[in-house]
Amino acid sequence: MLWNKEYQEHDYVVSSVTAKVKGVALTSLPDVGDIVWDVVDYSGPSQGKNSFFVVTNVIVTKKQRQGKCPEVPPYGKVCRTDEDCVKGFWDQHSHGVQTGACVKFDVTRKTCEVSAWCPIESKKKPPKPALLASAENFTVLIKNNIRFPNFNFMRRNILPEMTESYLKRCQFNRHTDSSCPIFRLGDIVKEAKENFSEMAVEGGVIGIQIKWDCNLDGFLRNCLPKYSFRRLDEKESNRTLYPGLSFRFARYQTEKGVEERTLFKAFGIRFDVMVFGEAGKFSIIQLIIFIGSTLSYYTLVSVIQSFLFNLFQIAMVGVLQKGNNIIDKPSQVLPRPNRPAWCLCGCCLPSTHPQEQLCCRQSIGRCITTSTLFEQLVLSRPLLEAVLLYREPLSDLTEGEQRIAALRNCSYRQYISWRIGAPPRESIPVMPSCSVWRIREEYPSQEGEYTV
């Protein structure tokens, strides 16, 4: 109850996240020149709720214009004549619509001509090392606001004791400052056990997990965020199709009245911020419910005890068989000469009480008292003494009439447990006459008076 705080009412977190990335990078692109990348350039399009994106690598195709040009293999069909090309054809892999002409692509191949933005992007693999590897030193401020509706409790990861001057100089470090909400991108990737330079080439997805485990009880009140990081996508290029993460965007300009564009295929890392949390607060109702449900388990004790007791009996029989070298053969019990007419086993005695006129059989046959198990489970003195001590460990089993009576009554109970099972409370099962008198012969009363 204490370890799991079962005395508390619990509620789950409702959260909102915003992220603000800062950093500037300078790249030198072939045939393009120097480009300065700021947050507008490398953030890319919106990645959805609780996510942000940082460009780390690019493939540039400059000075594209609307026109006609040969399609790029393997997306374009290699042809020999115009008959190999279908005017107006396109599919999901095409960069444009076929014109029906077969034109020269390079010195050895011809492809179908398409109407498209020309020249068509031809590079497939991104540069290595990544062009924006310096993004490793960018920082991101993550603002996380949480609420536990049932308790009307709100908090954010920028804690009340954090000042403006502290936030200007702090940076998250698991060992020295684990509460700072400002993270260096390279440190995030490192915490996820990845190498930023390698990941920056094709991109990927990193998860930033924020866990709130809040105790809202009095002087034990504690509600602080804990950060953890992991990679979410498959990082091995040779194990998956379409590895990494990329998207395309363009910058348009007009040259001599003709619209042009520079096409960028951007590779980068998407950071998904995932917030988990639970809060607990003392509730007398939850405490009562837990105590009640716990006590209900104790009703199983009698069932388990009966099961263990039966196992104990079987084990004791095994020990006795092994120690005494008992052979499983029927006991020699002679039929009684004065057996009543209703007796079919030959071992019952007459009685004037109807409840005692019961035989162990429904048809003529061998009596239950001749069974080896009857000797072992019902009459065996070592077993009966062990059962009595099991039930009452401190009972006094000294010789005398009291001990014989205890053994006789225990023998009755052993027979009922063996042949009938656990009877309903306040009910008295009727035992066969042959079994009752066999037990009484083994453990007789000196006065000759018996009660079952």
TrEMBL record:
Q: Which residue ranges does the record assign to the P2X purinoreceptor 7 intracellular domain?
A: 328-451
**What keywords tag this UniProt record?**
Cell membrane, Disulfide bond, Glycoprotein, Ion channel, Ion transport, Ligand-gated ion channel, Membrane, Receptor, Transmembrane, Transmembrane helix, Transport
Q: Which reaction does it catalyse?
A: Ca(2+)(in) = Ca(2+)(out)
GO terms, biological process: calcium ion transmembrane transport; response to ATP
One Gene Ontology cellular component: plasma membrane
Report the locations given in the UniProt record. Answer: Cell membrane; Membrane
| Stretches that traverse the bilayer | none
Q: What is its main location?
A: membrane
GO molecular function (one): purinergic nucleotide receptor activity
Topology in the lipid bilayer: Multi-pass membrane protein
Q: Which domain of life is it from?
A: Eukaryota
Q: Which Gene3D superfamilies match?
A: atp-gated p2x4 ion channel, atp-gated p2x4 ion channel domain
Q: Which Pfam families match?
A: P2RX7_C (PF20478), P2X_receptor (PF00864)
List, alphabetically, the InterPro entries matched: P2RX7_C (IPR046815), P2X_extracellular_dom_sf (IPR027309), P2X_purnocptor (IPR001429), P2X_receptor (IPR059116), P2X_RECEPTOR_CS (IPR053792)
Q: Which NCBIfam families match?
A: P2X (TIGR00863)
- What family does the Swiss-Prot or TrEMBL record give for this protein? Belongs to the P2X receptor family.
| Functional note | Receptor for ATP that acts as a ligand-gated ion channel.
Q: What is this protein called?
A: P2X purinoceptor
Organism source for this protein?
Oncorhynchus kisutch
- Lineage of source species: Eukaryota, Metazoa, Chordata, Craniata, Vertebrata
What's the name of its gene? p2rx7
